[in-house]
Inverse folding.
């Protein structure tokens, strides 16, 4: 029988009933039969009372495995530890992979953290303490310290023994790392390599070297790109002396890719799209800051337009096309911005230089501006039977699109250079800048032709 | 020594020099020492003449492994086959993983395809033929047919023999699948499971069952979500009778996640952001269609505004705030759209109902609209010393934001329901609809207060 996601969901009701009915043995049987991800899904739906019962029915090891798969925000997961006895919580933390435990403990109160760390075996506690110091979004912050290490002068047979012994604790056993003196990373072997070589061969004869690795302070996005390009299942992390201190596995990288793309998308939309709330109040609080900032930035455009109020009073037809010009230039700017942001995110070596990208955008702007401007010129000319007006609007649109394209490529590159994430803040700057320049260009071109426009 | 990406890049110059100097043996040594991803990076930079030489120096098997790692668009890779003798091309294709070969052959001309398939071993040719029929973006289109299958009534020892034998060809050996009669999928075992059990244990006693699997016609985005949630390295693909026909590995899924998020981002920005060109002409061709469509859609707003031209003539101050109102409502609509698109993409079970989401957006719109409206009312009231005008603009903004929020949540849900990808086409609809309603609301509210506005 093939298991589908639906059958799992039917099961969750039965399991919760068993918990309510205090049938400990049956509950354990059914619950532990599920994949940890499914266990976690059920767990996060429980009430506090049900959770208290679950902690009694399951061992800290079982709960720890399940906590590795929880998808709630760490600042919420940390509260579960407070519901447990300190020793039970410490055991749960001890069972979890260090990277996952650290994510959550980063949100614990100082005194709780100290309490847990005292109750956790010393070695693990030291690892947690160290990892808590790595900066967010670096290799150090997402790495796991549970990996298999072997040495060069052992045989394939003895390496296989090490792997079997550590199979239960290591995050992956499919890559094993060869270390030399001082824990220096020397080589790597896949389990596939080990299986296809004779038992008596020496590790240093068959290991892959040099090893592709990342440094503990590397940006998580770069690590993700490397794993993606090379189709690795894991990559080793070294400190500044080339010592192996952790690994990053592909499942952590998928979360990174997801997080980064959600950020890009959110940046363009001006909202945290992972807003999980169904409360209009919380949603409003999430969205209002950007809306107000954009409104205030937009007021600069409004102020600029108001300088031309007398011109509008004389030729009200001009007002009709403001939004068409600012809108189209804004669209062009967003296109150019999106292309630039994606290129920056990919960080590939063979990218055209900054200067060249800028030049490309300039000519792209001129070309798209010319075609779009010609289109609107014809439409307005025919619609309003006034080709002077059509020409003014067409010219304004062409200039505005060219400027917007330049801004769309210039601003994210500038932000990247000064160390600000271009995805987050570029959007509103582009649209404000492009609105301002569009209005300026439009009314100044219109001014030149005012006598012809008035005549109409 | 830890290898970094930079040292690889230095090497590529040396390797190309060896190729130019016709030093076949040394070229082979240096080139094949690189990771296939790096080999592919160098390959795609070669000239046609250099490539011809490379085909002579390397075996079809070596080129096939490298082609598995090529990141160029398949429609371009297919042209390389034309540079080879048909038999050599067939051997390269035979060596590649079926899923990768199929991606490329989908772009081959009919007569070329027939030629290659005739020269490829029958079994593989049949697989390729079948996979060419799977719809794009389904599990069938991205699956690989190189997996390890064992049966239930064999021992761990004999299963390990099967794995070792197939280690060179299978896409992954870290998951092995247990099949029953008629190739039906019965269970799964990780290599970790096998290593931690006694050699004499029977597979059916230790296999994990039931197996989480996907059907050949399932959407690739759903497959990606499952692999991500469960942290799998691979997932089996079954046909409608539950027969195992392929697997999808995590590296293919990373590409899917990347592709899907790029699509969402591109949809919001109205441009294919993976545009890799540095030619302004090509970039313009890529961007113009959306720009023109958006311009034409925007003309409906312009037409609507032109209906109120006489009102603007009487009170030109009204014109100044059009872009502020349409802009802010557009921003609110984009926020609401982005949240809805992300929710649809996640396809989680515990999502609020359609109706409830709609209600949440309505109240979110009212709340954000009220705060934003109040802000602009105060700004305009103080700036222009005219609180009636402030009230008109504030009211209009509040109504316009509420409507935009509703549209932003309604349209993507509707599109999803009728089977159109909401990420691709929603953006322009939202902004057009929100512009139109904003203008309509604004001028109708203004009309009610016209006598007070004229007084100013």
């Amino acid at each position: 029988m093939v298991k589908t996601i639906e059958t799992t969901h039917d099961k969750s009701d039965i399991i919760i009933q068993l918990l309510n009915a205090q049938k400990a043995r049956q509950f354990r049987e059914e619950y532990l039969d599920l994949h940890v991800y499914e266990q976690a899904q059920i767990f996060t739906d429980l009430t506090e009372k049900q959770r208290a019962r679950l902690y009694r029915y399951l061992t800290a090891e079982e709960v720890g495995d399940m906590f590795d798969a929880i998808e709630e925000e760490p600042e919420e997961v940390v509260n579960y530890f407070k519901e447990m006895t300190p020793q039970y919580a410490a055991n749960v933390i001890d069972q979890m992979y260090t990277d996952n435990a650290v994510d959550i403990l980063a949100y614990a109160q100082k005194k709780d953290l100290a309490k847990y760390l005292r109750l956790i075996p010393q070695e693990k506690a030291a690892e947690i303490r160290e990892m808590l110091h790595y900066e967010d979004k670096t290799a150090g912050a997402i790495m796991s310290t549970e990996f298999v290490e072997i040495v060069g002068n052992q045989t394939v047979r003895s390496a296989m023994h090490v792997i079997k012994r550590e199979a239960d604790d290591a995050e992956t056993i499919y890559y094993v790392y060869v270390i030399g003196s001082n824990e220096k990373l020397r080589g790597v072997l896949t389990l596939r390599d080990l299986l296809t070589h004779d038992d008596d061969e020496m590790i240093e004869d068959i290991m892959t070297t040099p090893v592709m690795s990342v440094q503990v302070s590397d940006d998580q996005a770069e690590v993700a790109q490397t794993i993606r390009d090379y189709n690795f299942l894991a990559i080793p992390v070294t400190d500044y002396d080339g010592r192996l201190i952790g690994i990053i596995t592909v499942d952590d990288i998928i979360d990174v890719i997801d997080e980064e793309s959600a950020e890009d998308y959110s940046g363009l939309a001006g909202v945290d799209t992972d807003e999980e709330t169904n409360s209009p109040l919380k949603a409003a609080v999430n969205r209002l800051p950007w809306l107000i900032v954009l409104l205030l930035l937009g007021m600069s455009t409004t102020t600029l337009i108001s300088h031309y109020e007398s011109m509008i009073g004389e030729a009200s037809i001009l007002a009709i096309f403001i939004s068409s010009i600012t809108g189209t230039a804004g669209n062009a700017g967003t296109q150019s911005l999106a292309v630039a942001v994606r290129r920056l995110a990919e960080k590939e070596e063979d990218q055209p230089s900054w200067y060249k990208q800028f030049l490309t955008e300039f000519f792209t702007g001129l070309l798209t501006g010319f075609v779009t401007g010609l289109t609107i010129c014809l439409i307005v000319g025919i619609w309003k039977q006034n080709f002077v007006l059509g020409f003014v609007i067409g010219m304004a649109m062409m200039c505005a699109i060219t400027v917007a394209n330049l801004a769309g490529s210039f601003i994210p590159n500038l932000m990247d250079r000064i160390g600000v994430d271009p995805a987050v803040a570029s959007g509103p700057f582009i649209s404000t800048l492009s609105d301002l320049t569009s209005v300026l260009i439009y009314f100044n071109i219109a001014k030149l032709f005012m006598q012809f426009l008035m005549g109409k």
